[in-house]
Amino acid sequence: MKINHLARINILKLNPYQSARKLGGKGNIWLNANEAPTSFTYINKNYNNLNRYPDCQPKTIIRNYASYAGVQPDQILVSRGADEGIELLMRAFCEPNKDAIIFCPPTYGMYNICAETLGIKRHIIPSIANTNWQLDLPAINLKLKNVKLIYICNPNNPTGNIINQYDIKKLLHLINNRALLIIDEAYIDFCLHASLVSWLSKFSNLVILRTLSKAFALAGLRCGFTIANAEIIKLLLKVITPYPLPSLVIDIAEQALTKKGLSQTNKRINTINKNRNYLAQELTKCPCIKQVFPSVSNYILIKVYPQYEVFKKLWNMGIILRDQSKQLGLSNCIRITIGTYQECKYVANILQQLNTT
Q1: For labelling alongside 111, which of 91, 121, 125, 245 has CA 20 to 30 A away?
Q2: pTM score > 0.85 for this model?
Q3: Are 109 and 17 in contact (CB under 8 A)?
Q4: pLDDT per residue as tens digits for the range 14-57
Q5: Residue 213 CA to its chain's centroid (Å)
Q6: Which of 301, 349, 279, 281 is nearest to 32 (CA)?
Q7: Where are the domains of the chain?
Q8: How far is CA 282 from CA 137, 170, 278, 290, 314, in A?
Q9: Strand partners of residue 337
Q10: CATH code, residues 4-38+261-353
Q11: 24/9 Cα distance (integer angstroms)
């Protein structure tokens, strides 16, 4: 039986998001998914309670993350990664086939995919490459009709840059009472000084997305947070699933947010930042690399000379990077996740020796 005729037209036309795992690869150096290079061991304490449903919003996780982020517990929603937060905001605020979102490529692809899946219109406003991918505020201003949500990734993925805070503040005033501004801070733990979470008391239309996937080294856990004023959180609670986090996820997330867990995370952040700075310096010595873009996150974007076939050659060596060439404005660009010091040194040595033959 053929069933495609039963599917929604927009789903039939949808080009799905290509995650690192979907793209595959075979190797022993995985630097393509912005994951932490090492993990920390946790003890499962809830294995005897799996016959019971977990809390929808686990109080200990919310209380501890609120303390970490510097907000009140009623300003936190916990979900299946920040990805679920991206979608929940669209479901709560956007009328399909009427309202629109704005996002600014090159950036994280799930803003586009979620909107397309839900039948929400998309206004794509490219960031300005010659200003290190900053916002094009005049272009955004021209496209605000029927826009309910604007998604800004900060630090931006895959470029690694921080968005100018003056521009963000100007945008918040521009859209006041008209739309929400969602700042995706998935990578902010590597540069906490740039977080905008303290602005929540000043701007009722500001929303922050966070995750345990990156700096907390828990990508496999799928635990994220939406941080906003309590009125927004109440609306999101209306559309979230009854039990978004499995009991085992709750257990480990609680441990990660203890004093001991936070100490481990801070050490990890310091190590990754040191490795990033080392790798960035070494990459400037590679003849195959045209440009190394500045980054404050756990990845570096490089622009390579195509004749070196960098991505293909390293892929064949078992060094799996992330090709960004199909992203708007990123032809011949590759993103490298920051690995261990040994991995960074090895990759840098390979790239320094790469030739065109």
Answers
A1: 245
A2: yes
A3: yes
A4: 787 776 666 667 888 999 999 999 888 888 776 677 888 999 99
A5: 9
A6: 301
A7: 4-38+261-353, 53-260
A8: 35, 37, 6, 13, 17
A9: 299
A10: 3.90.1150.10
A11: 28
